[in-house]
Amino acid sequence: MFNNFGDIKIVTSGERKKKLKIKIIVTVSVVVVVFVAALILLSVFGRVKVNGVYLSNKNIKQEFQNKIMSTHTVFMEDKYNKFIKYKYNIKDIEDRNIFTKAIDTLTGRNRSVSITYDADYKKIKKTLKKDNKRNKKPKNAKIVKGKKLYKIRPAELGTKIDVKGLVKSLKNNAENISVYDFLEQPKILDEDLEPTLKKLNKPLKWHITYKNGAEIRHNFNTVKLVKGKVKVDETQMQKIIYKALATYDTIGGVWEFKDHKGKKRKVKGGTWGSAVNYEREMPYIQRAYNKKKSHDNRKPYLLREAPKHYSKIQIEVSIPKQHMWMYKGKKIIMQSPVVTGLPKKKRQTPVGVFYISERKPGKYLKGRGYKTWVDYWMRLTPTGVGFHDAPWQPTFGGTRYLVGGSHGCINLPPAFAKKLYGKTESGMTTFIH
Fold first, then answer.
1. What gap in Å lies between CA 61 and CA 93, rounded to an integer?
2. For residues 188 and 137, is the Cβ–Cβ distance under 8 A?
3. Rounded to 5 degrees, what are φ and ψ at 246?
4. Local structure of residue 8 (DSSP, 8 states)
5. Are strands 110-111 and 47-50 parallel, antiparallel or unpaired?
6. What is the 3-class SS of 83-124, one letter each residue?
7. Cα angle 318-324-330, degrees, rounded to a multiple of 5
8. DSSP-assigned beta bridge partners for residue 215
9. How far apart are CA 386 and CA 270, in angstroms?
10. For residue 11, how far is the Cα from the chain centroid?
11. Close Cβ partners of 172 (under 8 Å, ≥ 6 residues apart)
């Protein structure tokens, strides 16, 4: 009930409450309408994160196929993917209510979908085996010959596919695989051969080299791999040792010299040269080999070491001419006819390069059936051949040696023998041809 006091309008408390109530109802209604509208918009035009990829709520099935399944592969080589059929279930995501869709849109939470597959193993195996016919097999690591030592030829993969290994991986639901991740592996790898290589090369690394360049060293013929085991041929090694030492056993070899006219000649034999002391050198080699201790620039133990040069004054004896010369360069110091050995077995004078090893002013020469004194003796060989006076010879030179030849010595006229003895010295080079 309003009381009129002029133009003043009086509002009662009841009317105020009524208006407030209407205002609240309207406000709530607007909020509800906005909220519902937002839910509808979010559910229709919002998106959901599936397996890390955002998909539209409106076209979730199509976008799952286009954005996820189109890039989802088992094989990196497409030719094999045709044998794969995928299995997955997104029904739970499709059937979400309006509230869940809105929440997924607002929060961006990830929903996982399990994707599995069935593979046509029979066709995959058939295709892989067909491809393998063109592919190369892997190569095993192998021990081969190097320059002086054995070495390992590295293992190689090739291009042949391990079909069993690949199929096993498929059965474990593997993805994004390449057939070349399943290459057949070599059965023998480099590291498998390292211990054997070490054993093989141990004897090959040992060596002895001599001053003249000769070398004692195992080679690929003396150290071999037989049925996986290292075999050392000691017999062949002995041959290598003797061959190296033979380079110092030069006595009796072929020698070049200049005769009394300065003409170059070659002769084989004699006592000139060096001789190895095998009784000392062989044990030394054996000890070094047992300890695998190498030696370089070694000089072997020698019984005799040949001088580096012939003596300045030299003696030449020609058996065909039955003559001898003492000379220096082209200058003849003295010469004389001689009588050499009877040209029969065990009596002929040896040829070669010799040196005077003994000088005596008087000596008995002894042999089977004779004992003869000579005044001047100049030895050339250990077996008793040398220069000496021979007063019993009626003549010298010519053909006397064919009937009255010596037992190998060079017989000299007595007067000449005395002069020669006075001119010679130990080590003087003598050429007999």
1. 9
2. no
3. -65, -20
4. B
5. parallel
6. CEEEECCCHHHHCCCHHHHHHHHHHCCEECCCCEEEECHHHH
7. 100
8. 209
9. 12
10. 114
11. none
Token pair for 198: 């070490």
SS3 428: coil
Nearest CA to 249 among 311, 297, 305?
305
Mean pLDDT split into 10-residue runs, the chain, 433 residues: 50 76 79 72 82 89 88 88 90 87 86 90 91 93 94 94 91 88 93 94 94 94 91 94 95 95 96 95 95 94 90 97 97 98 94 96 88 96 95 97 96 98 96 98
Are the CB atoms for 20 and 32 separated by under 8 Å?
no
Q: Are 190 and 152 in contact (CB under 8 A)?
A: yes
- Three-state SS at 197: helix
Closest CA to 177 of 73, 67, 70: 73
Please tell me what DSSP assigns to residue 75: B
Give the side-chain half-sphere CA count within 13 A for 198: 6
The amino acid at residue 184 is: E
**Terminal-to-terminal C-alpha distance of the chain:** 172
Question: How many whole angstroms separate alpha carbon 246 and alpha carbon 240?
Answer: 10
pLDDT for 156: 94
What pLDDT does residue 251 have? 93
Check if the beta carbon of residue 245 is closer than 8 Å to that of residue 276. Answer: yes
Q: Which long-range contacts (CB under 8 A, 24 or more apart) does 286-294 make?
A: 288/206, 288/208, 289/206, 292/202, 292/203, 292/205, 292/206, 293/206, 294/205, 294/206, 294/207, 294/208
Please report where in the chains the tokens 């002013």 appear, as a residue: 361
Euclidean distance between CA atoms 376 and 423, whole angstroms: 12
CB 142 within 8 A of CB 148: no
H-helix or E-strand spanning residue 81: helix 78-81
Q: What is the CA radius of gyration of the chain?
A: 56
Sheet holding 215-217, edge to edge: 215-217, 207-210, 295-298
Residue 72 corresponds to which tokens in the numbers above?
A: 């989802």
Asked if residue 81 lies in contact with residue 75, where contact means CB atoms within 8 angstroms, the answer is yes
Query: How many CB atoms within 10 Å of residue 68?
Result: 18
Closest CA to 431 of 265, 243, 250: 265
